[in-house]
Every structure is written in C-alpha cells, then in structure tokens.
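Contributing new complexes? Match this layout with alpha-D-galactopyranose.
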Amino acid sequence: MTSKSPLLSRVLWCALIVMLSALFIHAQTDLTGFWVFKAPRGDGTFTESYFELKQSGETITGNTVGGRAQSPVNEGAFRDGKLRFAVSFTGRGGQKGGTPQTLTTTYEGTLQGDKFAMTMTGGRGGRAGRGPTTGEFQRTKAEAAMPPAKLPLPALHDVRDNKLARTPPMGWNSWNKFAGAIDDKAVRGIADAMVSSGMKKAGYVYVNIDDTWELGRDANGNITSNTKFPNMKALADYVHSKGLKIGIYSSPGPKTCAGYEASYGHEAQDAKTFAAWGIDYLKYDWCSAGTIYTDADLQAVYQKMGDALLKAGRPILYSLCQYGNNKVWEWGAKVGGNCWRTTGDINDSWQSLDRIGFGTAVPGGIRKEGEPAPPGLTQYDIAQGATVGHWNDPDMLEVGNGHMTTDEYKTHFSLWCLLRAPLLAGNDLRDMSDDTKSILTNTDVIAIDQDPAGLPLKRVSQEGNTVVYMRPLKGGDIAVGMFNRGDRAADISVSWDSLGVAGKKLQVRDLWKHAAVTVSGDKYTANVSTHAVVMLRVTAK
Ligand code: GLA
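Output block (do not edit by hand):
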C-alpha cells in the first residue's frame, strides 16, 4: 500500500503513539502510596505536606499523615494526567482565640514524568495570608511521612535556677506582626527603633526572633539559619552593640510550628550553638513534639532543654511555650523555666484579648486519652503559680497592631502588668503611632509589672462585666485596675476598705492620666468606657 501523503501518515502515526503511551502511562499510574508536596518558601527552605493516597479507578481518597491530626482527602480525582483533591483542616479553638475555623486547601497538579507540578491554594496560610503555592508532588516512603521515634527522657529532677528574669522579661518578639516575613534587616531595624523610640529607656531589652529563621543542619548536625538570616552571630553582635539582648526560637519536636527545622535529638547541640551565636533568650515551643511525646512527657522534655541551656556556656533566659497544658505553673520553675505560656495563641482582637485575659483560656489540667478536657481556668486562678524569676505568660502583646481601640490596648497592657506577665511588644517598633508609643512606654504602668516584690494580684470585686483587681507593691503601695469588659460605659467603684486602707491618709494617682486623683469618702468611683480601664496607684500613709 502506498501512502497518499507521507507527511500526513507520519503525523497520524505520531498522534497514535502519543495517545497510546498516554493511555499506557495512565493505565500504569496508580497513585496509591505515600506522597509529599514540597514547595520552596523563598528562604532556602521547603514546606512539606505528607499524604497517603488510595486510587480506585479515577477516584482518589486518602488522608494527610505525619501531623498532629489526620485530615481526609476530599473530592480526589486523577484523570488525563491531572490530579485534584482538597483537604479541610479545622483549626484548634484554643490556639486561635476560641473560634474554631475550617480551612480548605485545594491541590491541583499535572503529571510530568513520575512527579506532579502542583499548585496549592487557600488553607493554612497562617497570618501572612499566602496566595497559591507552587511546588512538586512526589512519591515518598512511609518512614519519611511518619514522626520519628520518641527519645528516651531523663528522670525528673529540679533544674538549678539560672537567676535570670527577677522581674518579668521585657522586649519584643517578631511573631504577632511579622510571622514568616521577618529577616535580619527588620530585626536590626527593630533594635534601632527600640533605642530611638524610648522603649529601651522604658525597660525593654530583648529583641526576639520567633519561628521561620531556621534552615536545616550542616554535616556536623549543627542547626543553620536560612537566607533571611545570613549570619546569626553578626546579628547578635549588632543587637548587643545597642545595649540590647537577642532571643531565638525552637521546638523539642523535629519541626517548629511553622514547619521549620527544630531541636529533636539535637537539644544539647542547639543550646551550645545558640550560646555560641550570643543568644540570650530561648522560646521553646511544643508543636510537633506533640506527634512524638504525650502530655505526660512534657515536664521531662522541657527539663532536657533546661539542663542543656545551663550547660551551654552563656546565661539564656528559658521561655516555655506549650500553651499551659498539664498545669505548667506547677512544674515550669522545676525545669528551669523563667516563664511559660498559659494559653493558646493571642490574636489582635478584643475577643481574643478578653478571652485570654479574663476568660477561662487556661487549660484546666491533665488531658486523659478519650476523655473531655478538664474545664478551663482563668489567668487570675493561676496567678499564685508565678513567683519571682518564674512567670506566667498569657502570650505576647498585640498593642499597636491595629485591630483594637486605644482603650482596648490600654486594657491589654494594664492587665498584663497586673498579672506580672512578660511584656513582649508584638508590633512594628519602626512605625508606631504616638498612642501606641505612649501605651508601651507608660513607665507608671510598667512599674507595676516590674515591681520587685512580684506578688500575685487579688480580685477585689467582680460584677457583671466589670472587675477590679489589686496588687500589693513593694514598699506598701497598692496597684488597682478597674476594668469594664462590657459594651457600654459603666460606673465602677472600689472601696478603701476592700484595699485595707480605710481611714488612712491617701494619695492616689491615675496611671493613664498621669495625674493625682482627688479622693474623698470611703470609696473611689470612676465612669469607665466600654472595654476600658482605670489604673490607680494608691499610697496610704
Ligand atoms: C506557636 C506559638 C506562637 C508562635 C508560632 C510560630 O503557634 O504559640 O507564639 O511562636 O507557634 O510558629
């Protein structure tokens, strides 16, 4: 047979071969197994999400693997070399101000050889609110997807007190404002601004880098920083040159909360690296440790790093971050902790502030497998758990981040000071309004936080949406906070009798008005605006 057109027949043959091979590939391609989605973050690191997939015809099912909770793969289909599926995550209420949120992430990819070129859209973007992320979806092994083994843990003992933080630590932390968008240049700028804005003069000293500085490990297993932080030692030297101190962040698990390299199996080595860089403060965040250890292991896991820091060769303030689980205020000091988080994450909203500051946001005790969590406690309930050098930490400040009113930020700052909380500003110090600066540098209120006696606060009264706290200060003065949680102004009174100063000659100062208050009679009454506070310092003679 002779061909009418050799070119046409060649084209037809080619088309046939392409169709047949496509059919063959697809017939042969069974996606059942373990897969990883790897996408570059732009700082030298990759996000990695693991899946176990099952294929039946064109339908793909399965679930995420390796994380704290497994989420099912929905709407999965593999057709004509294209894979698509969705995963819905329900955010932890405790971590996000009590509002559980369901976020859906969609994955869409095209088969190229034995991998997919894939785009991930939506979902767990975090505070930075990421757009679509492109990367590769490739086969992996079950072992790579699974958390590593639990390490043997030391027997419990009391870690020697490092004698740091005799008053609650003051400084700044990158997370609330910057999340992953923090780098060497911004940290230097913040250190400069801490000095030029008057924050340093008001007592702020630590410049703390939170999550996302990490890269991986070198050939000797030493942790390394990513391209956002080219030289940690040089950065620490710079911060020190300003008369300030520098902090860093890690986790006892293999990954940090943002999925970066962490200290699992390298605890002592990392403590030494941090000391060699000149680090003065470590925030140690549970996160992926929860996939390896149980809550019953918390104390031993934190003790391990507490011991490692003491041997690291430099005083390093130790900040525990495990969201208040297992009554950390009962053992945080024993593991060498200078402060410990008492709740999940704060966010820049009145709802979050009100819940963490006044509500039952503190985990009430030990969670038992298969049982509901014990009822939550308030910051006030656990105030006795903090002692000099070992402070309760209701999370970092949101003052100045823009989503609360000036009155709400004053309430935030006043309450944190009455609670003797660490004061870690969480805003951009390079760009502060006068209002923000005047709140953060109110030395009258800061003096309450930093009072050397470090005594716990007492509740004087609580009626409806109003609450009055007091705290005895060194030398006999009394700090008073009159808070209005309600949505309209309210008269709030405090009687001199309830403060134990009835009949004495009183001098009273309003710490936000920076003025003396004229007092007469047996009580003081103030009209307090919605979500506002009146803060007093009472001197009785
Ligand atoms: C957790 C902590 C936060 C912050 C992030 C970083 O959510 O509670 O304060 O450190 O991790 O990923």
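Reviewers usually confirm one structural detail per submission. For this one: The radius of gyration is 28 Å.
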